[in-house]
Amino acid sequence: MKSITIKGSERESVGKAATRTARNAGMVPCVLYGGDQPVHFIAEEKAFKNLVYTPNVHTVVIELENGKKFNAVQQDIQFHPVSDKILHVDFFQLHEDKEITMEVPVKVTGTSPGVLAGGVLRLNQRKLKVRALPADLPDYVEANISGLEMGQKLYVTKLASENYKLLHPDNTVVIQIRISRAAMKAAQEAAKAAKAPAKGKKK
What are the residue boundaries of the Large ribosomal subunit protein bL25 beta domain, all occurrences included (predicted)? Predict the structure, then answer.
């Protein structure tokens, strides 16, 4: 999985006044969990642009001014209810030998015969929850629709997962090719046309 770097400064004071001062200066208060003890730090709000405002997912390298460095993932984020400014971010520290659970996007590949025939692709699951060691976390889960005919579904059990586990029930539908109204109407008209000659012969 791709990683981005966020540079910050460790906080000595975590009270309300210090937090307000940090936010007024364009900084975002953050906490890193998962280590021996929580690490409180602040980082510039613009540093989160490529982490928060994107459909992709990333791991994070947190670099502090005192030389400390941590590998982590975003765990939670709080926004201002009116301005949508980032108020607070929680991170969870990664450890090479410990599995982590994350939601990653689904990437659709291939061409469905059902879509070419007039069907409509429906993406039921835009993200899937995976569990893996940090080094094996995927940027996305590939869903190949090349074999899907109209009316068929792609279940989570059909997706490759050699280096990670998909944490969903086997009956979870990821993608389905639905019959469009136009295709259904054409089928009905074709069926009527096929019956017409037979009725004529009876007369």
Answer: 99-179
